[in-house]
Every structure is written in structure tokens, then in C-alpha cells.
Design brief:
Elements: E1 6-8, E2 11-18, E3 21-28, E4 32-38, E5 43-48, E6 53-57, H1 64-74
Antiparallel strand pairs: 1-2, 2-3, 4-5, 5-6
């Protein structure tokens, strides 16, 4: 709540909740080393080259199709 995930060229910007407030963070698509989707819990995990992981929950999206479209953008 309180943020939107955006993909602009090679940059993905996403909301992160810290200490009760929403902060925006970003990463470059070119930094992605692995994508994994766990169907049982509806979480897309993005692993970056520096070993950071970002988890995008299905609840962040309006539908599973929208999450799949987002994942497809990240695989380019």
C-alpha cells in the first residue's frame, strides 16, 4: 500500500516499507542474476548480481497475469 512498481527502460522502482513508512528503491534489470517464482506462496524472487534478493508478492499485483507480465519484462 502506498506505492507503485514501475519499469522505465532498464530501471525497476518499487516500494519498501521500513519503520512504518514507504520508501522507493530501484535496481537495473541488467543487475538481475536470477528470477524464481514460487507458485505455492505467490512470490516472485529477484536475485541481483550483488546477492541481494527482492521479493514481489502476488498481492502487489491485480492478478497473476499482471505478475507474469512483470516477470517477462525482467527477463529481457
Amino acid at each position: 500500500k502506498g506505492g507503485i512498481i514501475t519499469v522505465d527502460n532498464d530501471r525497476v522502482t518499487y516500494p519498501v516499507i521500513r519503520k512504518g513508512s514507504v520508501e522507493m528503491e530501484s535496481f537495473a534489470i541488467s543487475e538481475i542474476s536470477n528470477l524464481g517464482y514460487a507458485e505455492d506462496d505467490g512470490i516472485l524472487t529477484v536475485t541481483l548480481n550483488d546477492a541481494r534478493t527482492i521479493k514481489f508478492d502476488l498481492d502487489f499485483f491485480d492478478s497473476l497475469d499482471q505478475l507474469k507480465e512483470f516477470a517477462a519484462l525482467l527477463q529481457k
